Amino acid sequence: QVQLVESGGGWVQAGGSLRLSCAASGRRISSYHMGWFRQAPGKEREFVAAISWNAFNLYYADSVKGRFTISRENAKNTVYLQMNSLKPEDTAVYYCSINTGPPGSTWSGHYNNWGQGTQVTVSS
Predict the structure, then answer these.
(1) 3-state secondary structure of 17
(2) Could you tell me if 98 and 2 are in contact, meaning their C-beta atoms sit under 8 angstroms apart?
(3) CB 13: neighbour CB atoms within 10 A?
(4) Hey, is 29 helix, strand or coil?
(5) Would you say 51 and 33 are in contact if contact means Cβ atoms under 8 Å apart?
(6) Cβ(28)–Cβ(77) below 8 Å
(7) Which of 7, 22, 88, 111 is the least crowded, having the fewest Cβ atoms under 10 Å away?
């Protein structure tokens, strides 16, 4: 069983940056596609970004394209989400997860082993 732990969230002013980390333990994730989702209060969990197992393919929601960058460091069993030019509408709890579907899947049903999430708050 893989455990995923997100970190790096916090409070930031609009226009600022944060780097989220997702550290895996219990099993190597180097052969898995991975993804980031987020959930704002009162809203459904939504896809943010995904990365193929070899990092050759990257996928982004339109709302974050050009501002967020997903990456991975398989040697550290870790996936990252660099978030720049943050907006108040980016405020949410961010989760990483293992993607058992196609590498660019945006459907949460393809994802499992969710972490506990990390809160990101962007003030205007």
Answers:
(1) coil
(2) yes
(3) 10
(4) coil
(5) yes
(6) yes
(7) 88
**pLDDT digits 0-9 by tens, 49-98:** 999 999 999 999 999 999 999 999 999 999 999 999 999 999 999 999 99
Helix, coil or strand: residue 45: coil
| Cβ neighbour number for residue 25 with a 10 Å cutoff | 12
The whole-angstrom distance between residue 88's C-alpha and the CA centroid of its chain comes to: 17
Closest CA to 89 of 33, 46, 32, 30: 46
Rounded distance between C-alpha atoms, residue 90 and residue 112, angstroms: 23
- Lookup result for tokens 């999430």: 117
- CA dist list (Å): 49 to 1, 7, 74, 123, 124: 23, 16, 17, 22, 24
What's the DSSP call for residue 124? Answer: -
Please state, in angstroms and rounded to a whole number, the distance separating the CA atoms of residues 42 and 20.
Answer: 22
> CA-CA distance, 41 to 65, in Å (whole number)?
22
CB-based contacts of 12, cutoff 8 Å, min separation 6: 18, 86, 120, 121, 122, 123
The dihedral sign for the CA sequence 87, 93, 94, 99: negative
